[in-house]
Design brief:
The complex is a heterodimer of chains A (about 400) and B (about 400). By secondary structure, chain A is of the alpha+beta class. Chain A contains three helices and 24 strands. In chain B, the strands form two sheets. Chain B has a six-stranded mixed beta barrel with strand order 3-4-9-6-8-7. Chain B has a two-stranded antiparallel sheet with strand order 2-10. The chains are: A alpha+beta (about 400), B alpha+beta (about 400).
């Protein structure tokens, strides 16, 4: 009885000891340097991917007009307000013309006076012509009489001189008439110029549009070129998209686009690349493209932030791998392949990437190769690994 | 010859095992405390490893970017790239902040843990600073508004998180990416991070605009566009915290990094730290006080443990004083009795150590910060436990040898 009790105790104690040792062994194998790194793998497979470009941009007006005077002046009236719809040619604002009207009136008078001066010059010319005709008749008669020696040569020369003088007076009178006409033309042109200047202080809408800002009120002084009003064409809104230069390969005009506006993140609006800017931003290292809407949403606001995804045409068939599989070993890009339990680093050359994280492998991995995707920590060629289904969310 | 110790243990095995377990839990706490210290150091090293850099280029005269704040222009990286010996260089920003879950009405908002303390890292994809490995999801493919988070943040794939005014989608999860303080990291594209780090809130921006507009020298009537230009220049940020540099492989790593660091210091008028110097800054300066705090606690805990082991063995022996007297009466040699006590003490220590090690391993992952149980620490701990047990048993042995055999009869 006593012996068996001791025996039971011995067995129980032994079991406890074994249990403890087993727990220790488990702990040593599962944690610490002997523990294998858990990884997940994927079989490299061929396929096509649809690369896409992603950028953010702001809604901008394709045509935006700054309407202001061409010379410094004071604003007299502003007839429209922010939000007003305006038609091409509509009077939007007028600058104070100061003395332009009075100067026009003065020139009107000057032109009339020039007309009178021209009439006077014409009359003088006609008088000169009459004198010339008389002088010519007198001269001819005197010359005939002189040839027959009825009168002295002196008298003949005097008549001839009279005729030459009359000719010269006619020429002078004709020139006077031309001068008077030119004077009138000059004054008329000056008056036309002044009227244009007068028209220029009237600020007209260059196109149909909507007023987006009213920057100067009547009475305020603006310098040449400063905007009094800003007008945009609401029918021509587009998104100015900025794309990281490093991820902009394939960007061309005409690519289909999906635009998600910040005000409505649940809805994508279709569009396409209308223009790719030739000059990219060297400071932010971004390329700039304009994306126009196929059907612009009605509640679009200029300046709104938008996320734009551009779809590129599908690539040719190639090995595809998740981008989490791409690792870097010193200066080389490659993947860790698993060949019958042996870890090997295979340098690869990568091609395009889809936004879903698939990478085109141009060379370095054959289809069917087992490639390590996720790992608990950085792995090396001598790492011990165990392949598991998934690692996500598991505690270390 | 039968084992006296074994027979005695068999006699009162329950007490023995329970005492061993209790001792084990105490040792487990001590081992964990050592693990906490190692974890802190390892957090600092993990931060350096994960950045993948050989060299940190920071603002002149600072010990940034981890120990001090540092600020550089983001185009400095181009001139650094041009230096001889530099293979790759990339901008990086670090910002420790509360990252919120974006409860955009789609999911039931969880009230208690809506934000997570995290270090937001702005990195350039494919460059040093990028998370080297993932445990789920994918790397960032869009140049904006995507994030890779450490699993410790508790974020799930596809979840929307909020950093300042923008929402980010968690597209990948990684592991052991922590700041030197042990906060998990959230990786977002550099441009977003620059904005998150320096962008003011809307009220501040509006106030700043009004302030600029009311300044007559910045809002001159004769210079249209000046105010707009000034306000535009106030709203953007071109700063980063550090440049991570990888030196060209093939050269002697340490020498090459030192050479490049020297060039940067001399010609670029910036500060540069090699891996070893950065580790020195992090371990010896940044976490020095907390490490000393924990070290102090560890020492006290070790002393307390040793005292408790000694007292347990002493009281166990005192409990058997009558049996020892009988043994002496029947002529058992002192060596045998001392051996029995020593064996029992060492046995207790062994059980205690195993229980402690197992317990520490099981509860270490539950700790909010990383607890690293090193094998060297465990071996050292084992030796210490054995030595302490042996020393403690001497006290008990002295008491046992002093027992009068007559006590067995007279009592």
């Amino acid at each position: 009885m006593k012996l068996s009790s001791i025996g039971i105790r011995r067995v129980v104690l032994g079991l406890l000891g074994v249990l403890l040792l087993a727990a220790l062994a488990f702990v040593v194998i599962r944690s610490g340097p002997l523990a294998p790194t858990r990884v997940t793998v994927v079989q490299a497979a061929e396929g096509r991917l649809t690369p896409a470009l992603f950028g953010i941009g702001t809604v901008e007006a394709r045509r935006s007009y700054l309407i202001g005077p061409t010379a410094a002046g004071r604003v007299r009236t502003v007839t429209v307000d922010v939000g007003s719809l305006v038609k091409a040619g509509q009077l939007l604002a007028e600058m104070d013309p100061v003395d332009l009207d009075e100067r026009t009136a003065a020139l009107d008078a000057a032109v009339a006076r020039a007309g009178s001066a021209m009439a006077g010059a014409d009359a003088q010319r006609r008088d000169a012509l009459a004198r010339q005709a008389l002088a010519a008749v007198n001269a001819r008669r005197t010359v005939e009489l002189g040839q027959q020696n009825f009168i002295s040569a002196n008298a003949v020369e005097a008549r001839l001189q009279e005729q030459a003088s009359a000719d010269a007076v006619v020429t002078a009178a004709t020139a006077n008439v031309a001068a008077a006409r030119q004077d009138q033309q000059r004054l008329a042109a000056e008056r036309a110029g002044l009227r244009q200047q007068r028209a220029n202080v009237r600020l007209l809408a260059p196109a149909d549009g909507v007023v987006i800002s009213r920057d100067a009120e009547p009475g305020s002084t603006v310098v040449a070129g400063q905007a009094v009003l800003r007008v945009i064409q609401p029918s021509f809104l587009w998104v100015k998209v900025r794309l990281d230069q490093a991820r902009s390969a394939g960007l061309t005009a005409g690519l289909p686009a999906q635009v998600v506006l910040r005000s409505n993140p649940g809805r994508a609006v279709a569009g396409k690349v209308a223009r790719v800017e030739t000059i990219s931003d060297s400071v932010t290292e971004e390329r700039v493209a304009q994306v126009s809407f196929d059907q612009a949403p009605s509640d679009l606001s200029v300046g709104e932030l938008a996320e734009v995804t551009l779809s590129l045409p599908p690539t040719a068939n190639a090995v595809l791998l998740p981008n989490a599989a791409i690792r870097r070993l010193q200066a080389q890009i490659g993947v860790w392949t698993l060949d019958g339990g042996d870890l090997r680093f295979a340098p690869v050359r990568t091609g395009l990437t889809s936004l879903e994280g698939q990478v085109q492998i141009l060379e370095g991995v054959k289809p069917g190769t087992t490639v390590i995707v996720y790992s608990e920590k950085d792995i090396g060629a001598r790492s011990r690994i165990t392949v598991v289904e998934t690692l996500a969310g598991q505690q270390p | 010859m039968i084992s006296l110790a074994g027979r005695d243990i068999l006699h009162s095995w329950g007490k023995f095992v329970l005492t061993g377990m209790g001792l084990g839990l105490l040792i487990g706490v001590t081992l964990t405390m050592a693990g906490v210290y190692r974890g802190m150091v390892d957090d600092a090293r993990a931060l350096l490893n994960n950045s993948g850099a050989d060299l940190w280029v920071v603002q002149q005269g600072t010990q940034g970017p981890y120990a001090e704040s540092s600020s550089l222009r983001d185009d400095t990286v181009r001139s650094v790239l041009g230096l001889p010996g530099v293979a790759r260089a990339a901008n990086v920003t670090y910002l420790t902040m509360q990252v919120r879950r974006a409860s955009a009405g789609d999911a039931a908002p969880s009230s208690d843990n809506d934000d997570v303390r995290a270090m937001v890292v702005g990195f350039e994809p494919g460059q040093p600073g990028e998370p080297g490995y993932l445990v789920a999801g994918r790397h960032v493919t869009r140049s904006h508004y995507e994030a890779v988070a450490d699993v410790r943040t508790g974020f799930a794939l596809g979840e929307r998180i909020r950093i300042r005014r923008h929402g980010y989608t968690v597209v990948g999860l990684t592991r052991r990416m922590v700041s030197s303080g042990g906060d998990p990291m959230v990786f977002i594209p550099l441009k977003d991070a620059q904005e998150a780090q320096f962008l003011k809130d809307n009220d501040a921006i509006v106030n700043e605009r009004a302030r600029t507009a009311s300044n007559p020298s910045l809002n001159r009537p004769g210079v249209p566009g000046l105010l707009e230009a000034i306000q535009a220049s106030q709203a953007n940020n071109r700063n980063v915290n550090a440049i991570l540099v990888q030196v060209q492989p093939g050269m002697d790593a340490g020498l090459s990094a030192d050479t490049v660091a020297g060039t940067v210091r001399r010609w670029k008028h910036l500060e540069a730290y090699t891996r070893a110097q950065m580790e020195e800054i992090l371990v010896a300066k940044l976490i020095a006080t907390s490490a000393k705090q924990i070290g102090m606690f560890l020492v006290i805990l070790a002393i307390v443990s040793a005292a408790i082991v000694a007292f347990i063995i002493y009281t166990m022996t005192l409990g058997k004083i009558r049996e020892i007297a009988v043994l002496k009466l029947i002529g058992t040699r002192n060596r045998t009795i001392a051996g029995m006590i020593l064996q029992q003490a060492l046995g207790l220590g062994l059980i205690g150590f195993i229980v402690g090690k197992v317990a520490a391993t099981f509860w270490a992952p539950i700790f909010p910060k990383y607890v690293l149980l090193e094998v060297n620490d465990a071996l050292l701990g084992f030796l210490a436990v054995m030595v302490i047990c042996a020393l403690a048993s001497t006290l008990a042995i002295r008491a046992a040898l002093a027992v009068d055999p007559a006590a067995a009869i007279g009592g």
